[in-house]
Amino acid sequence: MLWLQTNRQNSGMMNLGGSLTRQMEQDFAVNESTTPHLVNIGRMVEDVENKMRSSLNEIYFSKTCNVVNNLRSMQSQQESIVCRLTIPAFLHRRIHRIYITYCND
To answer: Is 13 a domain residue?
Structure first.
């Protein structure tokens, strides 16, 4: 689960939420004295968690950063209104594509 909410005077209010499901299968040697099942499961959970975090960081947050940086320019009020209406739709489509990609993996 990912949930991000901000409400600042400079940036305004923003709500962002989503979920991501991953499956992984791997074979490990099991030795109850040195590497029991719990240790192997813990490693797998950490590996998948790190991959998911890295993937979200690369795909979603870098794209959001690019969009925000492109908006930080001198524009007319009309252009600014168009951007404010266009960006939420763009981000919604992007999140939907990411969700579909991860659900189909």
So the answer is: no
Non-local CB neighbours of 43 within 8 Å, separated by 6+ positions: 28
CB-based contact 20:52 (threshold 8 Å): yes
Q: pLDDT tens digits, residue range 2-37?
A: 667 778 777 677 777 777 788 888 898 888 888 788
Question: Which residues are CB-contacts of 36 (< 8 A; sequence separation ≥ 6)?
Answer: 30
Q: Is residue 27 part of a domain?
A: no
* Structural domain boundaries enclosing 69: 32-104
Asked whether residue 56 carries a pLDDT value surpassing 60, the answer given is yes
Single pTM value for the model: 0.46
Residue 36 lies in a domain: yes
- Number of structural domains, the chain? 1
The pair of structure tokens assigned to 45 is: 């959970």
